[in-house]
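Morning!

This is the sequence you dropped in the shared folder:
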Amino acid sequence: MGSLPAPPDDTVTTQALRAQDAAHLIHPLHSTQAQQNTRIWVQGQGATLTDSDGTEYIDGLSGLWNVLVGHGRRELADAARDQAATLAYVSGFAGSSNRPAIELAERLATLTYPSINRFFFTSGGGEATDSSVKMSRAYWTLRGRPQKTKVISRIEGYHGATLAAMSATGLSAYWPLFEPRVPGFLHIPSPYPYRYEAPSGISQGIAAANELEQAILREGADTVGMFLAEPVQGAGGVIVPQDAYCRRIRDICDPYEVLLVADEVITGFGRTGTLFALDHWGVEPDIVQFAKAITSGYVPLGGIGINDRIAATLDNDDRVWMHAYTYSAHPVACAVALRNLRIILEEDLPGQCATKGDHLLANLRTALGDHPHVGDIRGKGLMCGVELVADRSTKASFPAADRVGPRLLQETARRGLFSRVKGDIYVLAPAAVITEHQLDRAVEILADSIRTVLP
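The structure's back. Tokens below.
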């Protein structure tokens, strides 16, 4: 046996940490080039992060869209410690349960869409997508229609990177190293208000939604089990649908008996200004996926909620739903989620996201609305996207070789704002607890950086 590792050494240099990282870690979206000058994060507080050189940054993406309540919340650390000291782990398999999981499921039934009252827990969003797909297939099989297996999702949609979730994801960069994808997944265009071209005489939102009906008819309604969509597409560039879009989607799914699955992994628990984003349009899904903000990223947790009709079908059959994860209904994760939900409700974080999001969007439009290469500024609640284009009149994109997005990312980081880009779209989704001063500073940094990269 090897010796125990030495405790962390605060005197280790950033250069040494980078070397250790390169020698031993494989990262999500692994890229040797991207790791050359990686930042080593050592502390977070509120809406800021501090790296191993002691430099502080505004966390423009709240971790990865998830640290809604902000970094450094002692309440969540205490909740994890107390539960781990009491009962760290027990199986959540049928025949076994625990109080935090029961209480969390009961709490979610009061917060999610009225028809959704039963929940299955995962470790994150990708597992939630796989669980939705398997729930849909099980539901239709139990209903005597096992041929309804196909999944329709959207271009620019992101649903995770497990093999099935990746097949649902509509961002083609995720596919090449892992082909062939799982059969039975197909994609329709995004509603993308800035770029979707509707036929003459029909509104953009209705036309984009009708793409779903056309796909169902092409494939055959008897073969399509579910339509999977983010209410607001996040990783695809913060794409907010037209008001008519979601209602029309619901109207299409019902007569063709296609389950509507809302991927609220990013939008759930307040990010868009309501607890769940489809509430903006008065629409209820059949299945809702969640993760990220349910624990504000403090521990891994995700899951799905299913409506009463699906739950009754599952209950009223002798067959076992043979789907399982070791860490489903993990007591520590559920305890942290319960405490996190208290913070979200007691501090009205959905309301804060709505107010601060309006402030952020207005300031972005004031600061950048007349820039010749800013094509679109958009958002919903506290998630915004600024799309850069080579030509505003034609909406032509920059050649990838120009590396406009990556260069912009470097400039904003150099000035103290850390976030992500999707191509040449700079996205912002900070913690709900971000201050107005920090929001204004983020806008100032982004505007200055755009004028540096694209004078």
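Headline: Residues 80 and 346 are 19 Å apart (CA to CA).

More detail when I'm at my desk.
O.
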